[in-house]
From TrEMBL:
SUPFAM superfamilies reported for this sequence: Globin-like (SSF46458), PYP-like sensor domain (PAS domain) (SSF55785)
An annotated Gene Ontology molecular function: heme binding
UniProt source species: Comamonas testosteroni
Pfam families cross-referenced by the UniProt entry: PAS_8, Protoglobin
Name of this protein: PAS domain-containing protein
Residues annotated as domain PAS: 167-235, 285-351
UniProt-listed InterPro entries: Globin-like_sf, Globin-sensor_dom, Globin/Proto, PAS, PAS-like_dom_sf
C-alpha cells in the first residue's frame, strides 16, 4: 500500500467509515434509483438563486460542465466505493470549483444542501427497512465529512499553487508600466500587477484570489481576444473597459499572449497587457484641433494595418470622413498629371523614412489646389 493509500485509509478509519457503511450506501443507491438528476437540478436552482454564484458561471456551457461534474459527484457519493480513486476524484471536483473562484465557504455550504435534501428522502424510502434507513443516514454523514475534508485539501492545494505562481509572475510582471494580468482560459485572475489594480480601483491581492474577471469589470471583447490568442498564440485589439469600481469606461489597447505551460499543467494561462489610452486620446483630440486650425491633415496606419484619414485630411482631399481609405485612394485624390510624381516621392519616403512633395489635388487646378504631401516614419 502506498503512502497516499495509507493516508486515505487513515482518514476513513478516523471517521469509522467501515465496509458495513459502504454496504449501507449501496443499499441507499439502489433505493434512490434515478433521483440523481432531479437532485442535481434542484441543487443548481438553489445555487443560482444567489447573485454571487451566477457571476461565477458566465455562460450556459460553463454551467453544463459543472452540472455534469456534479452529476458524477452525486452518483459516486452513494455508490458505496470509497477508495483512493474516489479521493482523487473528490479533490478534482474541489479544484474545479476553486478555479472558477467559488470560495470555500460557499462550497462547503453546498453540503448542507446535500444533507437537508437527502436525509428526509432517506426516511421516506419504502425500499429500506427502518434499520437500513438508520444505517444509511449514519453512513451518509461519514461520507459527507470525508468529502468535506478532501474539499478543504483541494482549496489548500489551489491556494499553495496560486502563491507559487504569484511569486513567479510577480518577479516578471509586477513593475511593468502597463496593466498586466495572468488569467486562465475562463478569465479567472491568477496575477494582477499594481498598474492594472489601479485601473480597476482594486488592490493586486484583491484581484489575485482566483476570482473571475466579471466580478470586477465588464469584460466586453476580452473573451473573443482570449479565444483568438489560444488559437494563434497572440491577439490584439482596442476596447472600452468598464470597471465596476470606476464611474467611467476606460479606452484601452489590449494584447493577449498564450503562455506556454509545463507539461501536465491543468489549465492554460494567458498574459493580458492593458494600455490606458486616455492620455493618448486626449493628445489625439488636441492634434486634430490643431490640424483644423492649421489646415493640415494626416494619414495614420495603426497596428492592425488599416490606414485612416484624420477629419481635416479627409476635408482637404474631398474624401468622406470615416470612409475606408487606401493608398490607391490617396493617389486618386492627386491631380492626374502629378500622380506619377507623387507616387515616386512616396516610395522614396518608404525607403528613406521621410519625404516632402508638392502637387495639385484633383478637386482644383494649381495653384489653388496645391497640397503638400509629406511622409514620416515613426518608431
Amino acid at each position: 500500500m502506498t503512502e497516499i493509500s495509507q493516508n486515505f485509509q487513515r482518514r476513513k478509519d478516523f471517521l469509522c467509515l467501515t465496509v458495513e457503511d459502504e454496504q449501507a450506501m449501496r443499499n441507499l443507491d439502489d433505493a434512490l434509483g434515478d433521483q440523481a438528476y432531479g437532485f442535481v437540478e434542484g441543487f443548481y436552482r438553489h445555487l443560482l438563486s444567489f447573485p454571487e454564484m451566477r457571476a461565477l458561471l458566465p455562460d450556459d456551457e460553463a454551467l453544463d460542465r459543472l452540472k455534469a461534474l456534479e452529476m458524477r459527484y452525486f452518483l459516486r457519493l452513494t455508490a458505496g466505493t470509497y477508495d483512493e480513486a474516489y479521493g482523487d476524484e473528490r479533490q478534482h471536483v474541489g479544484l474545479a470549483h476553486a478555479r472558477i473562484g467559488l470560495s470555500p465557504g460557499w462550497y462547503l455550504g453546498a453540503y448542507s444542501h446535500y444533507l437537508t435534501e437527502l436525509l428526509p428522502r432517506i426516511t421516506r424510502l419504502p425500499e429500506l427497512t427502518p434499520e437500513q434507513r438508520n444505517d444509511a443516514i449514519q453512513a451518509l454523514i461519514k461520507v459527507v465529512l470525508l468529502d468535506i475534508g478532501l474539499a478543504i485539501d483541494s482549496y489548500i492545494t489551489h491556494r499553495d499553487t496560486l502563491i507559487a505562481e504569484l511569486r513567479d509572475y510577480g518577479a516578471a510582471f509586477a513593475h511593468l508600466p502597463h496593466g498586466t494580468l495572468v488569467v486562465t482560459d475562463e478569465l479567472n485572475v491568477v496575477f494582477a500587477n499594481q498598474a492594472f489594480a489601479q485601473l480597476a480601483g482594486q488592490t493586486p491581492m484583491a484581484l489575485a484570489k482566483g476570482d473571475p474577471l466579471p466580478v470586477f469589470m465588464d469584460v466586453g471583447s476580452l473573451p473573443a481576444l482570449v479565444k483568438q490568442a489560444l488559437q494563434h498564440q497572440h491577439a490584439r485589439g482596442r476596447s472600452q473597459l468598464h470597471f465596476h469600481a470606476q464611474a467611467l469606461a476606460i479606452p484601452v489597447s489590449i494584447t493577449v499572449h498564450s503562455l506556454q505551460q509545463p507539461d501536465g499543467h491543468a489549465e492554460p494561462r494567458l498574459l493580458i497587457t492593458v494600455e490606458d489610452l486616455r492620455k493618448q486620446e486626449q493628445l489625439n483630440r488636441d492634434l486634430l484641433n490643431a490640424q483644423e486650425v492649421a489646415n493640415i491633415g494626416t494619414w495614420l496606419s495603426y497596428f492592425d494595418g488599416k490606414p485612416s484619414l484624420t477629419p481635416q485630411a479627409a476635408r482637404i482631399l474631398g474624401w468622406p470622413v470615416g470612409q475606408p481609405f487606401k493608398y490607391a485612394d490617396l493617389l486618386g485624390c492627386v491631380h492626374a498629371e502629378d500622380r506619377a510624381y507623387a507616387d515616386a516621392q512616396w516610395k522614396k519616403g518608404l525607403a528613406t523614412g521621410h519625404t516632402r512633395s508638392k502637387c495639385a489635388s484633383r478637386t482644383a487646378p494649381a495653384p489653388a489646389g496645391w497640397m503638400r504631401l509629406a511622409r514620416s516614419s515613426m518608431t
